[in-house]
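**Protein record**
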Amino acid sequence: MNGRIHSLIACMAVGACAAGAGGPAPRPAPAAPVEVSGPRGNVASARLHNEPTPIVLAVAAPLDTVWRVLPEAYAAVGIPDPGVDPGAAKALGNLAFRPHRLAGHLLSEYLDCGRGITAVPRADEYEVTMSIRTDLTAGRDGGTVVTTTVQATARSRDMSANAVYCRSLGTLEARIGQWIRRAVGAP
């Protein structure tokens, strides 16, 4: 029985730390160490973090050409009202919007927020708050480096609970890149 209680406490502690408490931050927080202790000392130790993985793509087209079509790429994949980051040279994004679908696609095609007790993806069942940002930089040989970062959290619509962190599957970033390549005629 004691082992079961300690296991339950460990699962609750790790789950509470992983869930987070708010919408996505523009920049990820550093990883936080978590240690779970039992009556005999340290039982487990882990480092939890919600750091998104930027998807980087090289496009064989000049920076200004890619910059002109980037808003159209966002519109094509269903990202509403992108804004320009005035602090960055060529950055576009939408920080903290709440989609139900993106261009007719379920959010679970883009995000893994886990599954609920009914095995339905939380990305499709919960209220998702999403942030996306694309930075453009000049690449070698006159091309452009396109770096897109997606962050998201999901919160149950039915009850008061902490939000859960969602991991990008890279699909949305890939669709933006494919749209840009087609629009500029790059392979």
The CA atoms of residues 3 and 38 lie 9 Å apart. The longest helix spans residues 2-19. The radius of gyration is 20 Å. The first strand starts at residue 32 and ends at 38.
